[in-house]
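Field log, afternoon session.

UNIT: design team B
ACTIVITY: writing a sequence onto a fixed backbone
BACKBONE:
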């Protein structure tokens, strides 16, 4: 998958400057070396159908889609973390968005109305985390807000 992204992004990033390509190529190669990637998409047709069915909330459906995508991203990342697998969240569609998105759609065989929202790369065991601070009492948290 990352080979497809690299191939689509390389000409666009090189056109932005050799320094841009050199900086991004290292990142791409690191993601390519991951054990796997979870790709998160959003269906434009599903969003449109929901907006048509719930007309009073129609203007909010793009926002709802963002919320749903964010929840899915954090849930997948948390599940990988709970299994002890290291993961990182990427939004590579911002690099050569048209070219990369079209290449990814073809590679993943998703419908044309899908839009790419994120990639979660996973691989080696998660690295040690710092100690978790002691939880505050509810009243202390509430007062600080």
């Amino acid at each position: 998958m990352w080979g497809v992204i690299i191939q689509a992004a390389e000409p666009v990033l090189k056109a932005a400057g050799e320094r841009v390509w050199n900086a991004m190529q290292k990142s791409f190669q690191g993601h390519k070396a991951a054990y796997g990637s979870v790709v998160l998409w959003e269906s434009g047709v599903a969003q449109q159908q929901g907006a048509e069915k719930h007309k009073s909330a129609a203007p909010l459906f793009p926002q709802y889609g963002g919320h749903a995508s964010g929840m899915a991203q954090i849930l997948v990342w948390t599940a990988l973390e709970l299994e002890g697998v290291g993961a990182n969240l990427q939004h590579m569609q911002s690099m050569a968005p048209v070219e990369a998105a079209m290449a990814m759609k073809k590679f993943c065989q998703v419908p044309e109305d899908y839009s790419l929202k994120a990639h979660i790369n996973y691989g080696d065991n998660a690295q040690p985390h710092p100690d978790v601070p002691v939880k505050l009492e509810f009243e202390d948290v509430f007062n600080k807000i």
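LOG NOTE: Residues 10 and 53 are 42 Å apart (CA to CA).
NEXT ACTIVITY: expression trials, pending approval
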